TrEMBL record:
It comes from Loigolactobacillus binensis. This is DeoR/GlpR family DNA-binding transcription regulator. PROSITE patterns: HTH_DEOR_1 (PS00894), HTH_DEOR_2 (PS51000). It comes from the Bacteria. InterPro entries: Carb_Metab_HTH_regulators, DeoR-like_C, DeoR_HTH, NagB/RpiA_transferase-like, Tscrpt_reg_HTH_DeoR_CS, WH-like_DNA-bd_sf, WH_DNA-bd_sf. It holds the Pfam family HTH_DeoR. One of its GO terms (molecular function) is DNA binding. Keywords: DNA-binding, Transcription, Transcription regulation. Residues 3-58 form the HTH deoR-type domain. Gene3D superfamilies: 3.40.50.1360, Winged helix-like DNA-binding domain superfamily/Winged helix DNA-binding domain. Transmembrane segments: none annotated.
Length: 255
């Protein structure tokens, strides 16, 4: 692999992970650390990355929202999680898609179905699905959270009361054996908790970076999750879920 190919590969890796260690890149590309340092220095001069102690981080535009940044992080893993979730859907299902970048990955995958009803509070998901002839789309409405592009509030919660949902897909910024699935924002989490009440099957999709993280807003206890989809198998979580939850491991399919 020549220098140009290495630099392209480094940027692709950083689109997934945002920050990388020199030692990891050297091992992955089978070159010396000095070679990687030269590559990173060249990329920094082009303002594509920023050097940090022991590695580098991807340069992010200052006007980019946290949601836009998350779309690039662990994107391949999110696609695998979304594809695994679709295996549990059947034509005619009513599906709830919560807010977040992993849920958007699901929205992109479910357009393959010929007849689904989708309920969501996510503006990015609305934009993804509203032109699809095969999707009957219900929008909950409510107050808009600009940074996330999601709707929340009493109006959105009240609109859920009319629905009986076959399966709901939820994600979060943290999942822990004792605390369950958790997130940052109280208003969004209130709506997620209300949506969970209306779902016959509750699916949670999280990549491995979320394991062991606890955030202020608990959305659902670990024992109440029917289907957990991830790219890594946490043995303690599997033990606690017992026979109630199927865990799909896509780790071997993700490079």
């Amino acid at each position: 692999m020549d220098a140009t190919a290495r630099k392209i590969a480094i940027i692709e890796i950083m689109k997934e992970q945002r920050s990388v260690k020199i030692s990891l890149l050297a091992e992955k590309m089978d070159v010396t650390r000095e070679t990687i340092r030269r590559d990173l220095s060249s990329l920094e001069q082009r303002k594509l990355i920023r050097l940090i102690r022991g590695g580098a981080t991807l340069n992010i535009p200052t006007n980019e929202t946290s949601y836009e940044r998350r779309l690039r992080i662990q994107s391949k893993q999110k696609e695998k999680i979304a594809a695994a979730f679709c295996e549990y859907l059947k034509e005619g299902d009513t599906v709830y898609l919560d807010f977040g970048s992993t849920c958007l990955a699901v929205a992109k995958k479910i357009k393959q179905f010929k007849h689904l009803t989708v309920i969501t509070n996510s503006l990015p998901i609305i934009n993804e699905l509203y032109k699809s002839e095969n999707i009957q789309l219900f929008v909950l409405g409510g107050l808009a959270r600009k940074n996330e592009g999601s709707f929340f509030g009493k109006e959105a919660q009240n609109n859920l009361k009319a629905f009986s949902i076959n399966i709901g897909f939820f994600s979060g910024s943290g999942i822990d054996t004792r605390f369950g699935l958790s997130n940052h924002n109280m208003n969004e989490s209130d709506l997620s908790r209300e949506a969970i009440k209306h779902c016959q099957t509750i699916a949670v999709g999280v990549d491995h970076t979320k394991f062991g993280t606890v955030l202020p807003q608990r959305m659902i206890a670990i024992e109440n999750i029917d289907l957990l989809i991830s790219d890594v198998a946490d043995k303690q979580i599997i033990t606690d879920l017992c026979s109630r939850t199927a865990l799909i491991q896509t780790k071997n399919e993700v490079s």
